[in-house]
Amino acid sequence: MKHDLKAKNILKSAMLYCTKPRNDILKVLIVAKTPLTQKQITEKLGKNQHNKTTIYRTLRTLAKKDLVHKAYIHKKASHFELAENCGKTRCHPHFTCSNCGKTICLTDISMPLIKGLKKGFVLQRQKLQLLGLCPDCSS
Questions:
Q1: How far apart are the first and last CA of the chain?
Q2: Using an 8 Å Cβ cutoff, are 3 and 31 in contact?
Q3: List of domains in the chain
């Protein structure tokens, strides 16, 4: 119930209608501990909930309103998460284990915004993905 209320408040803050697909997708992302692909979101919703096109369009709408963002792309699949842990121009770092594939959000680490870009470059968003071995795989 508290996830439902949080999802509704997120939509209300962006002045979006609280439709079932928007609410359902936000609830999945609220509960998720890591960014999820569209396929993973679909699986968590259940096959009979919403079709792929509805989920794709809903994610696109939520991303345009900066409620959700693409955290990173891995194996040609975008991974989505709530944008609440990130600023307008930078995202918290993500650590992906090269052995087991698990990704951990490093929300307690802050990275300074890059400086010194050559003239003509306009930074829109800074993302950092670290690759290595997670604690389980490194022991």
A1: 39
A2: yes
A3: 2-85 (1.10.10.10)
Local confidence band at 71 (pLDDT 50, 70, 90 cut-offs): confident
The yes-or-no verdict on residue 114 having pLDDT over 70 is yes
**Cα separation values, 43 from 4, 46, 123, Å:** 19, 5, 34
Residue entry with tokens 């307008």: 88
Strands (E), 24-87: 36-37, 68-74, 77-82
Report the run of H or E that residue 69 belongs to, with start and end: strand 68-74
CA distances (Å), 26 to each of 31, 59, 83, in order? 9, 9, 11
Burial label, 32 (beta-carbon count in 10 A; 0-12, 13-18, 19+) = middle
**Which residues, in sequence order, are CB contacts of 73 under 8 Å at separation 6+?**
79
Sequence letter at residue 86? C
Q: Are 101 and 75 in contact (CB under 8 A)?
A: no
HSE-CB of 93 using CA atoms within 13 angstroms: 13
* Residue 82 to residue 127: CA distance in whole angstroms: 14
